[in-house]
């Protein structure tokens, strides 16, 4: 846990670390408490909506709507051939008005707007509500809704989540907990990322017994408006919005050069080319991957002259370009 120093009004708060991002989650109490949007939210939902609407453009966003019977959980339907919510399109100011109007209705539909680029829908907002010291390519996104539950999932970028309105509970699991989280399909997902099938508010341990191990290793953080949480790349996280009007702003950034391909591409290709090989061949390819991908780089190819390393040397745009062309040639054979 870290307590950043308060920032004078008008100045962006800074992160309490420099250099590479931490490999563990970090709770940052009060990091953005002086943001104007946080101050407006502390007054009332009406004041919050009025502040955000100052920046709203007539751009539509994707709004997820689930019936009150879903209890805020956006998930698959009972037959597992679709989802328990519908996607609509609406302007952001219209969504804000719906949230304010439904704030006192206990049986209101669950509403959720996720991963919406702030600069597209609210240009100028980030100029008044920002964090300094982030990588230049960090992208600010907006997440808004009422009482909702988003199943545990993971993201490739590092993530700084800043609560602007309402309270949120994050339940985090280290990447090695993957076998205990009962992850669903890779290619049939609510929003692009595979999710845990466990209802973590009422886990069915008879159906998902290994989740008991994940529970013991879980890290739970409850954030109020003004708090922030750093979530490292590939950490699984469930997010619960606990109030009737919630707003979260987050920053995404990758800790890898832009010329590198998405790691998910390698996983999908391995599924199509390696997973169903005979066991002995799979083991042989596991050894190949360990040698060429996961072993310690300074020692694994020391026997090759540096000028002859080719693709085995440090990656660069010049080395990746022919590698990508060779891969396309193999796939299009």
UniProtKB/TrEMBL annotation:
Superkingdom in the source lineage: Bacteria
Limits of the JmjC domain: 103-268
Family annotation (InterPro entries): Cupin_8, JmjC_dom, RmlC-like_jellyroll
**Which Pfam family, any one of them, does this sequence belong to?**
Cupin_8
Protein's UniProt name: Cupin-like domain-containing protein
State the taxonomy lineage: Bacteria, Pseudomonadati, Pseudomonadota, Betaproteobacteria, Burkholderiales
């Amino acid at each position: 846990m870290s307590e950043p120093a308060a920032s004078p009004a008008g100045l962006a708060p800074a992160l309490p670390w420099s250099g590479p991002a931490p490999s563990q989650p970090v709770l940052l109490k009060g990091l953005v408490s002086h943001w104007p949007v946080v101050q407006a939210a502390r007054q009332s939902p009406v004041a919050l909506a009025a502040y955000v609407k100052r920046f709203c453009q007539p751009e539509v966003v994707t709004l997820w709507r689930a019936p009150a019977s879903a209890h805020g959980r956006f998930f698959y339907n009972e037959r597992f051939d679709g989802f328990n919510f519908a996607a609509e399109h609406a302007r952001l100011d219209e969504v804000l008005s719906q949230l304010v109007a439904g704030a006192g209705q206990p049986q209101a539909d669950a509403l959720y707007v996720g991963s919406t680029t702030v600069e597209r829908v609210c240009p100028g907002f980030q100029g008044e509500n920002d964090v300094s010291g982030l990588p230049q390519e960090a992208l600010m996104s907006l997440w808004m809704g009422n009482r909702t539950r988003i199943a545990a999932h993971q993201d490739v970028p590092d993530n700084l989540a800043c609560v602007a309105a309402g309270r949120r509970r994050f339940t985090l699991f280290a990447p090695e907990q993957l076998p205990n989280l009962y992850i669903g399909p890779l290619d049939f997902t609510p929003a692009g990322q595979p999710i845990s099938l466990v209802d973590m508010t009422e886990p069915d341990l008879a159906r998902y017994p290994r989740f008991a191990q994940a529970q013991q290793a879980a890290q739970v953080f409850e954030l109020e408006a003004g708090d922030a949480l750093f979530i490292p790349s590939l950490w699984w996280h469930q997010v619960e919005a606990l109030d009737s009007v919630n707003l979260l702003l987050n920053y995404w950034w990758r800790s890898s050069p832009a010329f590198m391909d998405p790691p998910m591409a390698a996983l999908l290709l391995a599924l199509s080319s390696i997973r169903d090989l005979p066991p002995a061949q799979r083991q042989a390819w596991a050894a190949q991957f360990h040698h060429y991908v996961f072993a310690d780089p300074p020692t694994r190819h020391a026997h090759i002259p540096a000028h002859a390393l080719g693709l085995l040397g440090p990656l660069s745009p010049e080395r990746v370009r022919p590698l990508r062309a060779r891969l396309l040639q193999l796939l299009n054979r």
